[in-house]
Amino acid sequence: MSNNDNGNDEAAADRDKARYRTDRRTSVQFIDLNLIRRRSSGNDKPTQSQRLTSINSNYENESNDKNASGFTDFAVRRIKHAQYGRREIEIAEQEMPGLMALRRRAESDRPLQGAKVIGCTHITAQTAVLIETLIRLGAQVRWCACNIFSTQNEVAAALAEESISIFAWKGETDDDFWWCIKKAIGAEQGWQPNMILDDGGDLTHYFHKHYSTLFSTIKGIVEESVTGVHRLYQMCRTQTLAVPAMNVNDSVTKTKFDNLYLCRESIIDGIKRCTDIMFGGKQAVVCGYGEVGKGCCSALRGMGCFVYVTEIDPICALQACMEGYKVVRLEEVIKQADMIITASGSKHTITRESLDKLKNGAILCNMGHSNTEIDVSFLRDSSTNDLQVERVRTNVDHVIWPNGKRIVLIAEGRIMNLCCSSVPSFVVSITAATQALALIELFNAPANRYKCDVYLLPKKMDEYVASLHLPAFDAHLTELTDEQCKYLGINKAGPFKPNYYRY
Amino acid sequence: MSNNDNGNDEAAADRDKARYRTDRRTSVQFIDLNLIRRRSSGNDKPTQSQRLTSINSNYENESNDKNASGFTDFAVRRIKHAQYGRREIEIAEQEMPGLMALRRRAESDRPLQGAKVIGCTHITAQTAVLIETLIRLGAQVRWCACNIFSTQNEVAAALAEESISIFAWKGETDDDFWWCIKKAIGAEQGWQPNMILDDGGDLTHYFHKHYSTLFSTIKGIVEESVTGVHRLYQMCRTQTLAVPAMNVNDSVTKTKFDNLYLCRESIIDGIKRCTDIMFGGKQAVVCGYGEVGKGCCSALRGMGCFVYVTEIDPICALQACMEGYKVVRLEEVIKQADMIITASGSKHTITRESLDKLKNGAILCNMGHSNTEIDVSFLRDSSTNDLQVERVRTNVDHVIWPNGKRIVLIAEGRIMNLCCSSVPSFVVSITAATQALALIELFNAPANRYKCDVYLLPKKMDEYVASLHLPAFDAHLTELTDEQCKYLGINKAGPFKPNYYRY
Amino acid sequence: MSNNDNGNDEAAADRDKARYRTDRRTSVQFIDLNLIRRRSSGNDKPTQSQRLTSINSNYENESNDKNASGFTDFAVRRIKHAQYGRREIEIAEQEMPGLMALRRRAESDRPLQGAKVIGCTHITAQTAVLIETLIRLGAQVRWCACNIFSTQNEVAAALAEESISIFAWKGETDDDFWWCIKKAIGAEQGWQPNMILDDGGDLTHYFHKHYSTLFSTIKGIVEESVTGVHRLYQMCRTQTLAVPAMNVNDSVTKTKFDNLYLCRESIIDGIKRCTDIMFGGKQAVVCGYGEVGKGCCSALRGMGCFVYVTEIDPICALQACMEGYKVVRLEEVIKQADMIITASGSKHTITRESLDKLKNGAILCNMGHSNTEIDVSFLRDSSTNDLQVERVRTNVDHVIWPNGKRIVLIAEGRIMNLCCSSVPSFVVSITAATQALALIELFNAPANRYKCDVYLLPKKMDEYVASLHLPAFDAHLTELTDEQCKYLGINKAGPFKPNYYRY
Amino acid sequence: MSNNDNGNDEAAADRDKARYRTDRRTSVQFIDLNLIRRRSSGNDKPTQSQRLTSINSNYENESNDKNASGFTDFAVRRIKHAQYGRREIEIAEQEMPGLMALRRRAESDRPLQGAKVIGCTHITAQTAVLIETLIRLGAQVRWCACNIFSTQNEVAAALAEESISIFAWKGETDDDFWWCIKKAIGAEQGWQPNMILDDGGDLTHYFHKHYSTLFSTIKGIVEESVTGVHRLYQMCRTQTLAVPAMNVNDSVTKTKFDNLYLCRESIIDGIKRCTDIMFGGKQAVVCGYGEVGKGCCSALRGMGCFVYVTEIDPICALQACMEGYKVVRLEEVIKQADMIITASGSKHTITRESLDKLKNGAILCNMGHSNTEIDVSFLRDSSTNDLQVERVRTNVDHVIWPNGKRIVLIAEGRIMNLCCSSVPSFVVSITAATQALALIELFNAPANRYKCDVYLLPKKMDEYVASLHLPAFDAHLTELTDEQCKYLGINKAGPFKPNYYRY
């Protein structure tokens, strides 16, 4: 990455985004590096110099490593930890039936034979299963991380050990980050990619900016994140989108499974691990009744909580009412709340003013997609701050008022299910299989099927993704008779619903 | 209605549809006239002559009635029963907060001032609240029934007593049916309508066919039913749609409230009223996990049933799995099922072959939108039938096998929640308020906003409908701050979600 | 019944009890005769003369009837309606697997051979199944009703048609009531009973008073009701109990099944049939969190209600908290309540003062065991009453305040699940099988096993009752290995729990 | 403890029990020392020498320590860690409202003034709150651990820092164990105790054996555990019980709260922490439907599991049926089970034979009160073992079949909620408050109220314990009116239920 890039405003903005991305809602678990640093140093306040120091420079990674086969076209932290990563990948495989079925079913015809995929995602055991699935389906791949903190080093090592060109480690600097993307693109290595799988849009952006001539061979982009999709639609509007793109983020397999069930699985687990609190009879306020809020409410009620909901959208509010949750404004119940969970997708849903009203011992955590739902600026601005913060466990702070009142703040307001819980591989399998099918679709589509626009995956493929996960539940689908097909006006193999169907 | 019409094939087809409509899924309760006849005559098989005899000819209605004010432009069964109908309407008003709020909020500016609405809907206490709401909003109306059996005569009388031109009674003949539509249109009375509110598309069809010249003053059509919307889309494709139309059927306020919660409310109630069965521990099979199936499953589990689901669509099947329902093929569990509930929207989901496998005492009922889900043809074809049918209560038959096995068939396979349960006014209020707003929107829209096409109601209006129902739950919405609006890129007053949002 | 008895104070008190009993909590459904009268006469206010007139004098019953076999030793309303009653009994048999299994399993050895049972219970299809079960087990029986209103006349006729000596009809006078008991005892007919099955204690009381010499042959009393058990314990204390007695009322099969699940089954059904209200999102207050309250809360939450609980007992209150219900004092939430359900077992849980605070349209009903939970005295005292009462349906009154506010009062505060819902036969089967086993135990027990005291059924028999009902659920018990029996110190055949086990 | 004791058979048996106790069901969390050892040594198989080596001899503890006040009459691991323990205690205090309320309410009259309590319990933050509560109520105490592994050293240090005579550390030898009990009794220190609070019966047994003459001043024993209560009843039968004893184990506050809700809170948490599995749609088998099983089933269903139950007791089985769980024999569903949870209280509920049928990846864990529910003998007998065991995480083993099938075994079959989850302080507070009240009752009872027998706490005190925990839920009790008291025949202040009431 040249100085030119650094000097340029847009690039600066990009870097801001990259930094911001460390907190972005994703489908994988990451451990906050800052917290790790603090813990190991016994120092809760990272110094500025710590912030700027890269843990690994790219050069040291590049220079030394070689896997057991002598392969060197990768950059990971410690190739020797490959076996630990392999075990993690194997465990993940057991709970990712969709991808494993895809391997088995599609392997014979290798639908990605000839595909050269550059990928930029979180590097976790779960994405490793995706990457290796793509390879089994015929693809060649080069890969990098979409987040400077989220890489599981052992997993990256395991991939490198399989002679996969991966460039990623936990704790990259911004320079490292862009260097890794560049290496993944592989132009200098003479590689000519024809597919992009992106999560966040950084790879797409960088490719567009520095390798736009290579777009001639690109068949399409698959993008998973809110942010990345947003950037694609912008390119579309400005007519700078050079190839077709698939929006995986808004597919039903993501919104109605990943968003809903991942949160249902995580909310109890995350709060328990952090606080060991009893849930029975506790008064919980869930701010926001979208898919995330719905998942949280369902789990909390299942454990005997008394659940309040806050909402801005009357339709979602009415849904909450019909399910028997009490829809309130925060200030009506804040004094009696035992825990507050933000899931609004908004900013400053909880402010200092709210905190002042909370009762002693109340728990505060964020399940929403950004880290701005709880305004924790007071934690940082020491000049005006009358509150003390005491770290009581990893990811758990007590915020202490002058009168001794303590609030339990989880993960400094960052996304709890990523910081403090685990992400069930099964749910990730659904999204990952959607990504794989999006690649297959774009790679094999006839020339004119897709224009330079942003598409949702055809419904039939969403249905296929779902069907890959049914055997894990011993679930057996019913097949339509010819007569029923005719009556319903649909094909025996689907799609079974109109595009606007809400599920 | 002239003989010409009768002689004409298309008209015959229309009549078939009209007859078919008596079984169509609707938002209101109706009582099967055939059953009433049989009961009163003590004869389970209506004779052909009974079928052909109109209970009321239009002439007798027309000739004699006059309300207390001397008004005569209506045709109902017994104007004297108006007070009973008025009480029913008053009771419904208490559970229709959306419409009542609309009256209060919009009354001052009378957004339908100048509207001349022809309506064709079921005539029930709930639609009466809608009709009178439209009038309060400034509209003039003429009304008829969309179904020959579903009119609540007392309610029709109550409307007539208010000098509303209504033409409807329970047990119309086909001739009566079209005569009433014609009277509602009111061309012969010199009326010039400018809005159409239809449920099923018959009014629209008749108007299009016989009064197409009047379309010049029509500002739009609001249609609520699956069938009617289907017909509108067909007209759209054949470019015969002469005015804009609003599709209320696929609005979120219908699919995510009416379909889901109406069924959750009705399934227990309907089966209890018919069979007095205990639900705890019963093994129930719900065929179909769409909104209707979801509502049924939720209620059944809430009462302690053990619930199986059958599905053709892998996405819905995966949802059922994630909620902890066992997804099976019917034949896997049919021998042990205590009750089978069809909610597939398909045809012949339950066949004679299935029935043969059911255990003694099993209950069979249909919650789906057509009457064809359970193939009950064997009930009618006496020549080949080895089964006996014994009516044990209204809407409850025992089907008896030669070996003595008895199956409990509810409502002859017709839609149970309409036959045997009640329809909660509250849920209807949501849909009815959507209809009212659709009229207001079309009536007041600037000239070019809507073309001759089929539209969904703008999301903001869906949200408004929802907001009208929140006070009934003491629910209080949260308001976005300016900062949050900016962050989210949305307006403080909504709409709050993109159009593709699934809720 | 002689005049002496009538003149005597104690007998007068007995009659008061008999009258009071018409409202007592029982396990069977009854239909309020007054309501029937009112309906048929179209007159909502029964006259004093109606109240005093017996619908049937005993003489007319006695004189004329004869069944198809020429048998005459019975008194029922219309022997000709026997076939209708038989069908009701057959339907009940299908949902009473415990009794039916008892017939099959115990029939070979006829454990009640030689037993001569006098029974005094409600006369319903369900008790008919019990009575005929006892006969199949070898018993001879004579039977009468424990309640002047609750007899299902067709069922009584069906029993008489089987040549069972039954003396019962709906609408007995007090004189009829005692006459029927006397006839059931059968001393004048030369019968010498040896077992008593009572529900309420009237038969026991009358027998003790007038036939105490016959106690020498009585082997024991089985009593099912709260009141009857209370009277037995009193006799025990005053040492006037002449034989052993079994308290079925406090058996686990009654308290943990009948009380809990019967109410869970009835609460939604009863309110729906009366009001057609939607439950989703409604704010319900359940007064009392005993077994009845627990059942109500569970069902209400299952339908999407928001449930508040009031309690006097901190242990039950803590249970409600742990289940996520909000425990409040009535006055805290009464203004926002949509429905109030009393299940406290107490008196005047709801007073006029509470009613004044309720909002327009609120629903008020009683699920508790007495009719005094809601103080409805204002309904009767017209002199001081500022409230109007309007009957809107059977069992549903609107109570109207001077300002127009209306409260919906169900069944005049009587027990809703008996008035307005049905009682699932399955649950009754559990209690009835317990009664049958109690008879078998007392009849066959060795001489010294039971003294003149009140006993609970041995746990092993409770377990047997439960086991009889498992096949209906396809439930399969696991059997202990010898090693496990030794480890647990229990017998392979049970009993499996200590007596104090709470379930 | 002298060699004489060691040589003696009974003492050997005692030591066996002491060792066994390390696995006994308790109300507190402990961490398996063996696992800790293994982890720190990186050696999964503890050697025999490790097993026999005491981590701390009593002498080193005794000799050196002194708290800040110069107090030395205690023996803990590291007095310097007192501040860490104090923080844990403070956190626990926030979730133990019952004990804290007891401090506030009863402090003024100090009902334990003059009490000299010897205690033998797990030493955790939660018991520390109990101990310090007793002191606030006026008691003097000396304390030791009832389990050689479960002591939280920091907590013990915190107590010692408060000059409490505590003798306990994690990893005591058997000799240490008895030495600590002896020191707690304090006879050599000239102390004369008058109350015993025991958990498991070892202190009672030791006291009875070596200090029986001191019984003359003992006013009573409070015992919490199944085992200890069992031993007391045995003493009662052999007439060797020298003082009154309170059985806390069977109080309603223990069985209906601790057993039920503690397991509901722990089951999801424990399995998640060990396996990160997704629960939605998983097929879970819960073996046993007592309070523990009920809690597990409720939580699992709340997370979307499909739940099967196995039972030996038909009454519990019928309860499971009525709640909608499918009651099966293990072999019917074992091939499809995703997880099996034992909660039977029995032995060898899961055998090798069952394990052979499980599918790949199935999870196996124990929530029951002993460690024998899952027969894991094959893990130990290497000679005959064809299975491999691979430790994948703390408390998680993969058991590997020759064909590669892997079963996930949690905590080697020990009680999962103690090994892998946390114990919510709130639930412990209920039991601990019961213990405190039992001490108060026995200490203050008039001379003749209690004989040398085993008693349950008076119901009124159970109710008081419950009432102490209601404010934490903002729960407000309703008070009976005088009229209601009279009607119900109960006192305004309770007790509110008969002794046999089941809750």
For this entry, give a set of tags:
homotetramer, alpha/beta, Rossmann fold, 15 strands, NAD(P)-bd_dom_sf (chains A, B, C, D)
Compile the SSE list and pairings:
Four copies of one chain form a homotetramer.
Chain A lengths: L2 H5 L1 H13 L11 H9 L6 H5 L5 H7 L17 H13 L2 H10 L9 E6 L3 H12 L3 E6 L7 H9 L3 E3 L6 H12 L9 E4 L3 H9 L9 E4 L2 H12 L7 E3 L4 H24 L7 E5 L3 H12 L3 E5 L3 H9 L3 E2 L2 H4 L5 E4 L9 H6 L5 E4 L10 H4 L7 E6 L2 E5 L5 E5 L5 H4 L5 H20 L9 E2 L3 H11 L12 H7 L15
Parallel strand pairs in A: 1-2, 1-4, 2-3, 4-5, 5-6, 6-15, 7-8, 7-10, 8-9, 10-11, 11-14
Antiparallel strand pairs in A: 12-13, 13-14
Helix pairs in contact in A: 6-8, 6-9, 7-8, 7-20, 7-21, 8-20, 10-11, 13-14, 13-20, 20-21
Question: Can you tell me about this structure?
Answer:
The structure is a homotetramer of 503-residue chains. Chain A is an alpha/beta fold and 503 residues long. The first copy, chain A, folds into two domains: 75-254 and 423-465, Rossmann fold, CATH 3.40.50; 260-420, Rossmann fold. In chain A, 43% of the residues lie in helices and 13% in strands. Chain A has 22 helices and 15 strands. Chain A has helices spanning 3-7, 9-21, 33-41, 48-52, 58-64, 82-94, 97-106, 125-136, 153-161, 174-185, 202-210, 226-237, 252-275, 291-302, 314-322, 330-333, 352-357, 377-380, 416-419, 425-444, 459-469, 482-488; strands at 116-121, 140-145, 165-167, 195-198, 220-223, 245-247, 283-287, 306-310, 326-327, 339-342, 363-366, 388-393, 396-400, 406-410, 454-455. In chain A, the strands form two sheets. Chain A has an eight-stranded mixed β-sheet, covered by helices on one side. Chain A has a seven-stranded parallel β-sheet with strand order 3-2-1-4-5-6-15, sandwiched between helices. In chain A, helix 8 links the parallel strand 1 and strand 2. In chain A, helix 10 (174-185) crosses helix 11 (202-210). The longest helix of chain A has 24 residues, at 252-275. The two termini of chain A are 45 Å apart. Chains in contact: A-B, A-C, A-D, B-C, B-D, C-D.
